[in-house]
Amino acid sequence: MEETELAIIGAGPAGLTAARAAAARGLAVVVLDENPAAGGQVWRGGAGGGAEAFARAERAGATFRFGATVWDVTAENVIAWSDGAKSRRLQAQAILVASGSMERPVAFKGWTLPGVMGVGALQTAFKSGGVVPAGDWVMAGSGPLPLLVLAEFAAKGCKPKAYLDTTMRGGLGGALPYLVGAIGKPEFSRGLRLLVARALSSVKVYRWVNEIEALGQDRIEAVVATLGSGTVRLETPLLAVHEGVVPQTAIARLLGVEHRWNELRRAFEPVLDAHGRVEDRMLWIAGDGAGIEGEASAVLQGEIAAFDIGHALERIDTQTRDRRCGWLRAQRARQQKLRRFIDHRYPPPELARGLEDEVIVCRCERVTAGAIRAAIAEGATGPNRIKTFTRCGMGLCQGRMCGLLLSELTALTTKRRMDEVGALRIRPPLKPVRLAELAGLEP
Amino acid sequence: MSPDADLIVVGGGLMGLSAALHAAKAGLAVVVVERDWPGRHASGANAGGVRSLNRHDAEIPLARAAVGMWREIEALVDDDCGFAASGQVRVAEDDAQAELLQARVARLEAMGYDHERWIDRAELGARVPAIAQHCTGAICVDDDGHADPQRTTRAFAAAVQQAGVAIEAGVTALAIEPGGGALAVSTATGRLVAPLVVNAAGAWGAGLAGCLGDLVPLRPVALQMVVTERLAPFVRPVIGSAGRQLSFKQVPTGQVVIGGGFEGIADAATGLSRLDHPALAQNVANARALFPGPLADARILRAWAGIEGVTADGLPVIDRSRAHPGLVHAFGFSAHGFALSPLVGRLVVDLLLDRPSNLDLQPFRLDRFP
Which CATH architecture describes the domain A116-243? Predict the structure, then answer.
């Protein structure tokens, strides 16, 4: 089994920064990422600071393994991963999970039809392959990302037919007290605002959309949006939806890390100390996987974790760590102020509220909200029991798509708090792995 | 102190539920206490094999009787539990294994059993066309099969509740103590008293038995299972091998469930378990060796390990306590109890009520352990 001092899962902003900072202080660092290249989501294809951060981490001596699908992580810090042909294992003294975020999975009538996708997935396709949907498409959702993607695509001459803005009324008012802290941050630069404004001015925008439904036989043909003033029907072969992002918690869940429900962000977040460390473990979590704070904060968290890991491995003395981390944490606090504004400006939807019985919750096993409510009525009061009753979460995606919705639906139906309801237990493999890859595991 | 019930069953797994069901049918007032929920551990996490094939001699009469009950399981619990009489097959992968298996069939015939029979390579190929070419034959039992463990546990739990039994889930039994002619089960939330108690606490059974001086060498074991994505149907019977650890079946969803007794890492204190990667790799390699074609590109969706109690001799304890006649132990089924569960409840109630039984429970007595 290969051994290293620090294993980092994820080569996005947090992972790359941590890899550079730790390797620069002499730690043996191995970075695993399932993508073919560094960058993660926001720095995909070397965008933003990605190319430079990767180059600096490599120069500092970090080893990178791309196309590496991590399928298990044990309490003894053994990472089992596959390169697509063969499984290998890596024993690390410390592990940093920097697996980032995923789009909040949203369920509505027709969401499983081909042609309905996440805005993030659309952007990923665009960043990695340059696929731009030609003219005739509709975007729906809320938050900064749809606006950015809108601007990005409009600049390429591929603006959507319409933007169905699902941002709730009152969001802006509620966010105003936090605006002061957010002003002057690069995310809200004048240039970007102008770009977004220009894109929006040429796209038909429907505001206060409170419900959407995708229609079609074998794939989406139209979307119907319900607004305060009635409904609007738009013919479209493609609907991109986005309701914000939530932390990827699968690895932390697998490792039994305690999570708490963040009501404002409507997401589960791992419980960590100020350095991103899991109490009493040689395990750290940094970046959006620790709670959605965005790219700039992820960079800071990556470096904070690297210093703390260096300290735990006795390569960095306490004074050096505290001095550096003190400054980094002050920077991060400023990013958190900005995030508070965004959190209030774009309040996330309650996924389960008003969900009709016929809406599919688990796409892999085609389990409807009605089937879940029936299982609850039969006595399955938690996500894991509902899973055994209905097969919800037993499919190819391992509950990544339906897990949050399942918990929210359970909490709403049984009138309990999210922390009480909890989440689906995560079983390895984290991602489907071929028997051939597993059978070929190195001893 | 007035009793809370006629009978307290400790353990809401299949054995406990089966005992509660048979007891309720016999007119007893029953309470079940379960530390998590029915089917949380071995009852829900096993492979669902209904097998009389290749049983230990002592278990053959029980297994045959149980298979008969599975055929009519709907009459017992008002659900078919996903039971399919698909047959079970144990292949020989070389001539030496073939000889051993044929010798077994001959030995069983001499004992008066005719449920196992030898099939040659041609018949094996006809029954299981996807089996690897090197297999030289097999023994099989045609009316064996498999059922759905989760569905079975739910059906038993529902039937038990239908019969008026209360299942106290999330209640951990800490000790069983005799007192005033009755028995008390102390739990984290209080004491329950009844003249009769069944200890069906699975991997935790020996701890409770030990309270009364009934010592059973029992090891908590996390048995690993793997399930693949859905595949086109390619095998009907449950497959094992004389030469390797394997239990292999394709369930109605098309998914393949692979087990075989490979051990993960069990923590009985927390009830959690985790996987042992090299064991998992070996388990999967064993499956691929028998079905190289259909599994060439198949993916694994999930692997897990359920905690089960394995005794020193691999046989369960089904016996009255030496310390108190009102207590009956039924645990330590050592990873092959699922098939027996409909029957075990009846055996336990026979013991509780001093009813005669036509099955020999001598091999499952406590006093075989010094």
Answer: 3-Layer(bba) Sandwich (3.50)
